[in-house]
Amino acid sequence: MQIDSIRKDFPVLNEIVHGKNLIYFDNAATTQKPKAVVEALNEYYYHDNSNIHRGAHTLADRATKAYEASRENLAKWFNAESSDQIIFTRGTTDGINLVAATFGKQFISEGDEIVLSTMEHHSNIVPWQMLCENVGAKIKVLPINEKGEINLEEAEKIFTDKTKLLAVVHVSNALGTINPISELTKMAREKGASVLIDGAQSASHLDVDVQKLDCDFFVCSAHKMYGPTGLGVLYGKRDILEKMNPYQGGGEMIKEVDFEGTTYNELPFKFEAGTPNIADVIAFNASLKYLQSIGRDRIREYENDLKEYGRKRLSEIGSLKFVGDADQKTAIFSFLLGNAHAFDVGMMLDAKGIAVRTGHHCTQPLMKHYGIEGTVRASLTFYNTREEIDILVESLIDIDKKLN
Amino acid sequence: MKSSEDIQNEIIEEFAFLGDDREAMINYIMELGEKLEPLQDLEKVEDNIIKGCQSKVWLISELKDGKVQFTADSNTAITKGLISLLIRVLNNRSPKEIIDANLFFMEKIGMSNMIGSQRSNGFVSMIKKMKIFALAYQGQLQND
Q: pTM score, two decimals?
């Protein structure tokens, strides 16, 4: 990878923070945006700003084409059967809520079971709890081992004939664990259950093929894929999306409205009420094109090298204890430094210009599982370098001396 | 005894001396925290807790000879240091002085920039709690 050239595409990486060169290791929270994405936003607002689909003028046509081109490219990125199975949402959380409020309400009822894992983000717990409160269903939880891996033997016992849905995270935001999605999906399928994959942390780091995964739903966020915030994607299998009732009313989701009743539009518009987030959808395509220009294989290979190197270097710090150390994982390092509180470590790293996340990472049940309040999390991506890891390690050694 | 304004001005001067060196500021804050007498484990109970965003803070007060005595602790070194500053300004004062105290040092030393807005809210909760204690003692003194 031409790392110097790639880093030049992300102007924010040149920021000086507290007199030091920024080292951005909070990519699991949100990734930085390449110039191409920011320029796409500018281009749209400077030249094409218009509402889409119904305008009878040139700008509306240009905006509509750019908007739908993004959908097409997302279908290609995830290998969806067709682009009309790509629904734009406000993000991963919004996508999960949509499925809970539509599919959940229609197809899950009293006594049914929803299977989640111990390492779910709150966004993939709370919507299902809300659904269970409404319909009388029950949540069951897949256990994990000390390394932060789902125990497949134990998992098999969780699925029953009552299981209606498996909703599971593809890559844990708190631990970096890559979950055995295919095996879990197979277990769910054997019981006739549907499958939702929270792909917030996998969509840009792994080779996601929704057809190979055989999932019913896949959700992700643009801002964790080098695109804009407040935007995401819900992929769904066609037969199931067609059976699902619309989530919100108004705008593009109608075919015909009468005071006597309304007929709904076809996919994907049925689920896209109101004026959509046009500019950001168009800019999202710029981020995808950027990733495509580098190539998924090269990104994965490079990030894998960062993961191996980071793991080795961080292991050299005697007081550092990894929280979650799965065999299959992405370049996310969650750890504690001796008896130091994660907050203190995070603040001291910030003073050295290093951005990490500290706390429970919106996975409180997971933290309870480990009996801790939170961790320090360094999450890396393809614009990070081995040199930055070296600086992190040196900084942690220095902090360790002060705090432990 | 120096006024709360004087003490705050002293703190502002101390931090001005550190300049913009964030690491030096954090180290200094932690040093201040280390000087604060830790609470006993039996005092670190739910009733004494003021929940911040990521850190836990325990605060205890008592009225002695018409003056409020505060003791506090935290599970993070930096937060403990920040609390020690508050205690330095408000400790051993009459309830009225605490209620009337205008706390301006946090803004002047750039605390909210340093700890972020969410954690600043936790700090504001701490001040509120100290003032609530003072109000209760004020009422108690008036009834006596």
A: 0.94
